[in-house]
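Reviewers of the previous submission asked for a worked example of the structure-prediction workflow described in the proposal, so we include one complete record here. The input consisted solely of the amino acid sequence. No template or homolog information was supplied to the procedure at any stage.
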Amino acid sequence: MSEPITYASAGVDVEAGDKAVELMKESVRRAQRPEVLGGLGGFAGMFDASALVGMRSPVLATSTDGVGTKVAVAQAMDRHDTIGQDLVAMVVDDIVVCGAEPLFMTDYIATGSVVPERVAAIVSGIAKGCELAGVALVGGETAEHPGLLEPDEYDVAGAATGVVERDAIIGPQTVRPGDVVLGLASSGLHSNGYSLVRAVLAQAGWAYDREVPELGRALGEELLEPTRIYTLDLLDLIRSDVDVRGLSHVTGGGLAANLARVLPAGTLARVDRASWTPPPIFSLVGSLGQVPRADLERTLNLGVGFVAVVPPEHADAAIARLAERDLPAWVLGEVHEREGAPVEDGVEVVQGAKGVDGGAVQVVGEHG
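From that input alone, the workflow returned the following structure tokens.
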């Protein structure tokens, strides 16, 4: 007779999963809020929603996302403690776009083989991201998929829920012609466009341990720079005297497409490249791969990770308040009525994106 088949011999190590949970407990404890009920290991994460009773008309906002092929860089470098912050950023910063405060988050890690220390490192990054966003990590799942994923392969995903008063929702309905568009600096590539970046580097034969003078560090360190989390900075701005009329998270699709999604139909935002200089990593990718500018701008953030739209009389105050929180911001351009807007001939106008028939954006000029 053949040998008995056990779950472990089939490739799933339950004991390794239990050890991973033990190793991640301390990280998860740091990513809590007073409203969290119960502890790690329950079937469901619980969050006391009593505070919503005191709201006039609470609206829940939710988002889910992953980190794309940036995980391939983390795996190649065998460094797993930053990818979790990327995950949190990609999820919670979508929620704050509508003015909502993210409250709690759950994560999902799928791997070919559970290595407790690796899983704990991933969760430590998620917990740190939750701390930076003021979000509670209330639960998660680690799934072992032998035969589907290689032993050293994994992917991560997450979902979060937030809340906003109905009359405080930010969106196209609150943006007006004459408003000023502010750019908020990114921390680097963030967590999209890595399929393009990795293809460029592979063709050039550049290894991740290569020291790059323009970057001031090794290439892999630049690629794993965690995505900036804007949540608390933007919530602070929203709760200040600044009238925040529009917000946009610049991810896949680039600046123009994501800004167009939050503009009302019948408007056009004119953005001037001369208002900022992209960090060196973007010009490096562009020149190394001879990537057309249109492709770069549709794929990467080019140094603008978020956009805020405010009345012109509030622009200076918004920039100053963000600077106090060590977040560089500057004037990118202005919103106009589409009819009669100063449109430059021969330059693409991006109209709506991702199924949203919103406003239009034209990016003009040259970077300084």
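The mean pLDDT is 92. We consider this example representative of the routine output the project will generate in years two and three.
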